[in-house]
Design brief:
mainly alpha, 17 helices
């Protein structure tokens, strides 16, 4: 049984991700003016991408010392497919205009097309046998060089350059799967070489990441009030330091949170591990392409609270509601669908894997 420190991080990461989605998917009518609610929404969104970093680092930390399991891959595909079909059914029942023939076809395929996170996580898991072999083969100095160069090219430079409208923008071919491989490799590095890393380092990384992102948000707000170009791009730039996938400060915050929880002394708590087992399902349920805009704009009508004094309370309520509903749905799915199905097919999948490994070791 896994210690509950990392499992608690899964829960915290998912809460941060939902908080982020509340702010960035809510279609709030942002203006260049500096208001309390505007800054609140920026801060509320601050940890979302860091939550993604930490979530994937957890996978790298555990997977680098284990092997690819066909039945676990089948479990992952089944979970992603379940939510893809279920949310298609919900969208069809509501008569949403997102239900096009193309989206229906994509939703019915077990490839996670309705969730960027689910799809990239699926691809990452498929690549783990190759990634693990490469990471274990690399000499330590080249492993460090890989992480440093990747961080500079895909996170630090784009964060510095792309803030300014008049500077040529570049992401050096950045793709989600690239970032997932880097996050995975960082978690794996800590498992293989990070015994000397202390909780203090995690606190420093987290502090720099949080303060850097917060001050960056304030900088964007100031520019929005003084720079005509920024005034026109306020909706695009307001979450610059918290929404961009290549955000350098989000990366630091995610790494810091991972180290802090890794070094935390939290013994096994069954309830933490049970709740943590539903977090991926919570993501797939609430961030489905077919349903997310309807949920935020119509069902929850978050944008209507932009000028309201109760916005902070409503934001907390919505995050809690989504987490509890998603947790409940996934717990039921685990108990009544996944466990019976996997019990029936796992022996066959293990036999298939044993035959495959005679030819191609995984």
């Amino acid at each position: 049984m896994r210690a509950s420190n990392i499992e608690l991080l899964r829960i915290i990461s998912m809460i941060l991700i939902i908080m982020h989605h509340f702010s960035v998917h809510g279609c709030f009518p942002f203006t260049p003016d500096l208001t309390f609610n505007k800054v609140f929404l920026q801060v509320f969104a601050l940890g979302g991408k860091a939550g993604v970093v930490a979530f994937v680092m957890i996978t790298g930390y555990f997977m680098v010392s284990s092997s690819f399991k066909l039945h676990k891959f089948a479990k992952l595909v089944g979970q992603i497919w379940f939510y893809s079909i279920a949310m298609l059914g919900v969208a069809m029942g509501l008569g949403l205009d997102t239900v096009t023939s193309r989206n229906m076809m994509l939703a019915l395929l077990p490839i996670g097309a309705m969730s960027w996170f689910g799809q990239n996580f699926l691809v990452l898991y498929l690549l783990t046998p190759i990634i693990n072999r490469v990471l274990r083969w690399l000499q330590h100095k080249y492993y460090v060089m890989l992480l440093v160069v990747s961080t500079v090219i895909w996170f630090l430079i784009p964060t510095a350059l792309n803030l300014w409208p008049n500077v040529p923008h570049t992401t050096f071919g950045f793709k989600h799967i690239f970032s997932f491989v880097i996050f995975y490799s960082m978690g794996a590095y800590i498992k293989l070489y990070g015994s000397h890393i202390t909780k203090k380092i995690g606190i420093i990384f987290s502090a720099i990441g949080f303060v850097g992102a917060f001050l960056g948000d304030i900088l964007v707000d100031v520019l929005a009030m003084t720079n005509p170009v920024y005034m026109k791009q306020i909706l695009k730039q307001i979450f610059y330091f918290t929404q961009n996938d290549y955000g350098f400060f989000q990366l630091l915050l995610g790494i810091g949170l991972f180290i802090i929880f890794l070094k935390a002394k939290i013994t096994y708590r069954p309830w933490i591990n049970v709740v943590a087992s539903t977090t991926f399902g919570i993501y797939l349920l609430h961030d489905n392409k077919l349903f997310l805009h309807y949920m935020w704009d119509n069902a929850l009508a978050t944008y209507q609270y932009y000028d309201s004094l109760v916005l902070p309370l409503y934001a907390i309520f919505v995050v809690a509601l989504i987490f509890v509903v998603g947790m409940t749905v996934d717990y039921v799915r685990l108990a009544f669908i996944e466990k019976p199905v996997m019990k029936a097919i796992t022996p066959s999948l293990e036999r298939i894997q044993s035959r495959v490994e005679k030819v191609l070791p995984l």
